[in-house]
Write a structure and sequence with these properties.
Two copies of one chain form a homodimer.
Chain A lengths: L3 H8 L3 H8 L6 H14 L5 H8 L4 E6 L5 H15 L4 E6 L4 H12 L5 E4 L15 E4 L9 E4 L1 H14 L5 E7 L4 H16 L4 E7 L2 H18 L4 E4 L2 H13 L9 E6 L13 E3 L2 H16 L7 E4 L2 E3 L7
Parallel strand pairs in A: 1-2, 1-3, 3-4, 4-5, 5-11, 6-7, 6-8, 8-9, 9-10
Antiparallel strand pairs in A: 10-12
Chain lengths: 325, 325
């Protein structure tokens, strides 16, 4: 492979001039033309290790998510990667699978200079491994230190779900969901839901479980039966779409018709792919806007420019087949 | 940040000894203990640029796919990333969005030493940019040069779809699909389907469109009406799951009941996430096995070991709600 020295030799200029050219410096027109011709003739491509060593930038960003195999996270990764291209940066994909060791291993990558920064969406207690000196932006979760956070307006989303269920004719509502103890965004969803119900004098049940997914799933069949049969609930807001699909399956097993007998609204509003729309009524998170804000914010942190500590983006209602409206 | 020199100074050993230690070389026990203590005291972490420069390995692999925002590709990326962890390698995610310039840009990354190799799933004609000297493994598509390819047994899958439709009671079958002119795997699906029908004397229609997705989608409503009304088809094999969802929507619009009047089988068998099973009957590609084979094969190519040129993996039938069996 051709080196910078080969280019200089062929162009009959100094190595310094070629270096200056490669880094966007101004040169005489004659010199520029000679260098460009030599680069073309030699099919020269910049050695990125050497560049990384010099500028301390790798132009790679790590995206830390629980799993890419999930419509919300895959849509998010899609838009973040597209956004990073505007900054000539690449995305390293890190699936933590909610495994603490995996998360810590990925975060330590940044210290080793392997990436310029992190965009993290994590529900573990990794606070002690994260210092605010490391370029990091958090999505969907506040850290204890001063780390910029991008999130949807979960509180407003909870209220919007209650409002839409009532508008569509539901009389008695329930919230169903679980979250990790570090997960404040899902708590905001039920708080917004609860606040709306209280303000408007609407009867509502709150089922919120703090713990692990599989523990909650074991309890779910009984919980769903209880609220439908004993409590006569006819409008359910579920904490996220994935859980909503599980609730829908349980309703079907109990011969409850959706949306005729019970209406269901999820949260996320993501779809499987660009071409397959979701049939679930849901509060949609503004995924393209979250991606754009996270990337912009991280680039600012890396370049030591000012970045907002909290960015809260508005949600919208996506009507599907699980509500009457 | 502490450097290798700082470690050597504190441990009172030579820089060479520290370097030897970091690269797994044997040293006197006393020296090893002193270096380990110094590394701990200084919180020293290896500078990866320098390592990359020395060994010419970045321990990163680029995965080139049309879009991560799709259940098949997100499941594939999930397993490839997990597999790469066994080789201490990271995954760089590249969504080409079927854009030729994007594909070429990503492939040129490898030349710039930014990644150790590529795993590519592409439907464009990028042959001229790919030379077999570059560590690359292809999924789902043969390249003209000698590049190792991992794929599902598409031909057998097409036959299996026809067999399952007949077993479930369908009498007259159709294949519906499209593919790019460079896409041999989708062609194998209808060829396998066709071969099965011919061998078993089954009446069948083949609708295969070579071209772009949106062009095909414009024709789809008319095609579906034709085969259902004029041809009385009652079993449809669709080239992939995404297309199958579109066909299902059109059948619903035409008040055709699935699976009562018409049965439908897709191809891919991917699901939205670990926890949401798919309701579509489909020929499932062995995604975890494809991921494992692609990574193993690429590592062998990078390390200049022998790698099989073609790996064809068996498919299975996933019965869902769109067939009677």
């Amino acid at each position: 492979m051709a080196s910078i020295k080969d280019v200089a030799k062929l162009a009959q200029v100094s190595v310094g001039s070629v270096s200056k050219y490669l880094n966007g410096g101004k040169l005489k027109e004659k010199t520029t033309i000679a260098i460009e011709q030599a680069i073309k003739d030699l099919n020269y491509e910049k050695n990125t290790y050497a560049t990384g060593l010099r500028t301390n930038r790798t132009h790679t960003i790590a995206l830390i998510i629980p799993t890419i195999w999930h419509p919300f996270f895959s849509e998010l990764a899609f838009y973040i990667e597209a956004e990073l291209r505007n900054y000539q940066s690449k995305l390293i994909l890190c699936n933590t699978q909610n495994n603490y060791e995996n998360e810590v291993a990925y975060i330590s990558m940044a210290r080793q200079n392997k990436v310029d920064g992190l965009i993290a969406l994590t529900y573990s207690n990794v606070d002690e491994y994260i210092s605010s000196e490391m370029p990091i932006v958090s999505i969907d979760r506040y850290f204890s230190e001063k780390i910029p956070t991008i999130m949807s307006d979960n509180f407003a989303g909870g209220g919007l779900a209650a409002e839409k269920l009532i508008q569509a004719g539901a009389k008695k509502l329930a919230f169903i969901g679980y979250g990790s103890i570090y997960d404040n965004s899902t708590r905001d969803r039920y708080r917004g839901f609860q606040a709306y119900c209280q303000t408007h004098g609407i009867e509502s049940e709150i089922i919120y479980y703090e713990g692990r997914h599989h523990e909650f799933n074991e309890k779910l069949p009984e919980l769903v039966q209880q609220i439908i049969i004993n409590k006569a609930v006819n409008g359910i807001f579920v904490v996220n779409d994935e859980q909503a699909y599980e609730v829908l399956e349980l309703l079907q097993k109990n011969k409850v018709r959706v949306p005729e007998d019970v209406q269901v609204i999820g949260f996320d509003g993501s779809q499987q792919s660009t071409n397959i729309p979701s049939s679930l009524s849901s509060i949609r998170q503004p995924i393209p806007a979250i991606a754009a804000a996270a990337v912009k914010c991280l680039i600012n942190v890396i370049e030591k420019k000012e970045a907002p500590l909290k960015t809260i983006l508005p949600v919208t209602y996506h009507p599907g087949a699980t509500t009457k409206e």
